[in-house]
Amino acid sequence: MLPTVLVRCLFFIQSVYCCVAFFSRRVDGFRVYKAGIPKLVTRSHADYNWDVSHDNELFGVAESRGDVSGNRNNLRKPGILTHMSPGISTVLPIGKRIVNRIERVIHVEMSRIGAKEVELPMLLSSDTINERRNEFGRELFSLTDRNGKHYDLCPTCEELICRMLDKALSPLSKRNLPIYLYQIGRKFRDEARPCNSNMRCREFTMKDAYSFHSDKDSAAMDYNKFKQAYERIFTLLELSFDTVTIGDTEHEFRAMLPNKKTLMEIAHIFQLGNAITTEAGLKYEAEGRTKHPVYLNSYGIGIHRLLQAAASQHADSEGIRLPQIIAPYDVAVIPCDENSEEASADIYTLLSQRGIDTFLDTRKAPINQRVSDMMNIGIPHIVYVSSVYTEKAMSCPNEDITMKIIEGSKKSNYYHQYQSPTYSLLQDKEIPDTIQRINVGYSHRSFPGEYTIPVPNCATAA
């Protein structure tokens, strides 16, 4: 009875709507065709108004223009993060863009070796961690719900992912192995001496991967595969690091912090054998339905530690000189006067349509302050738009510098081109052909000198 009533109501509503559409010939967002039946009008992305301003992204950039190299606040001055309390920090918009780029490189490299991404909960029932509860000791954050049930905030996920696999693949067959899984998520540890750096945090972001194997030899072989993938990631991010061997089944990756003259652990990988999987009840079935232990490897990367290592290793007197692959933007476009604002917006649109992540600095601030801020946050390519460059003779970096710039751009574009939301927002926006024929000023964050180049060369360089 109820379905019949609903159908009649819907039919009545549709009839009324079609009558209204027929007599008005137009309903907002619809155009009427034939017997009053409305057809959706497809609107171009360019029809929607949106704010191209990036001013709010710079709210965390410190006003002081001092040297940040050798300064413990080299994450705060470029507006990367701010500390809320010992061991707890918030990542600001510029820092989040850098983190997103680091994570995108990790996603691609994990896909390269066949690892699949999962999402695991941060809240664990207290029985998830049993055997290793004493190992974590007082570092384990615990809480109780309104019914008196005890939970833990996730410090690591070995036990949890074993239980997940046991529930998702039951029975687990030898044909399913090996399995590579990873996630990027939050972890919690009640550090005894938390500090305002990313070395001892109570809450932090971690990329943790796990591989499951049918025997020890398979576990050892794939352990080396992940080890090589991690070394490739750190090399791509242009980090100076050491790989430290700890016994036969464990490696630690350490990055140098020049300002502290110390090494910081950025990643740790383990061959854990079958103790944790056995305790979790995870076994695989072979012929004759016989049960066998599963071997587990664990691979962790501290995302915020990578952020600190990159900012520390690439700091100079003007801010952070990040490699393009992890810079918050590829290009900054700076209008030097009011008459250049329209041309700057067109150049910004042109670069965005080519998949290049571009920052348009529309702030009403002195030109030297805007340039200083772009240098501070580590944007590699800076474009200056002004009529004075149309009168200047063409000048380009020498061949050696040009090749280095293009090499860095190619590496970055492999991972990041066409990934920015502004590419979708601006892809239908029309720009005048004349913008291709003007000259602009150009400088690169890592190389001295300012040059005069045509606009198409900006896209080539970036």
From TrEMBL:
One Gene Ontology BP term is: prolyl-tRNA aminoacylation
Q: Which Pfam families match?
A: HGTP_anticodon, tRNA-synt_2b
Q: Name one GO molecular function term.
A: proline-tRNA ligase activity
Aminoacyl-transfer RNA synthetases class-II family profile domain sequence ranges: 97-323
PROSITE patterns xref list = AA_TRNA_LIGASE_II
Q: Does the keyword RNA-binding apply?
A: no
Record keywords: Aminoacyl-tRNA synthetase, ATP-binding, Ligase, Nucleotide-binding, Protein biosynthesis, Signal
Task: Indicate yes or no for the key word Oxidoreductase.
Answer: no
GO annotation, cellular component aspect:
mitochondrion
Q: So what does this thing catalyse?
A: tRNA(Pro) + L-proline + ATP = L-prolyl-tRNA(Pro) + AMP + diphosphate
Q: Which gene encodes it?
A: BBOV_III011010
* Superkingdom field: Eukaryota
Q: What is its EC number?
A: 6.1.1.15
Q: Where is the signal peptide?
A: 1-18
Q: Which InterPro entries does this chain map to?
A: aa-tRNA-synt_IIb, aa-tRNA-synth_II, aa-tRNA-synth_II/BPL/LPL, Anticodon-bd, Anticodon-bd_dom_sf, Pro-tRNA-ligase_IIa, Pro-tRNA_synthetase
Q: What name appears for this protein in its UniProt entry?
A: proline--tRNA ligase
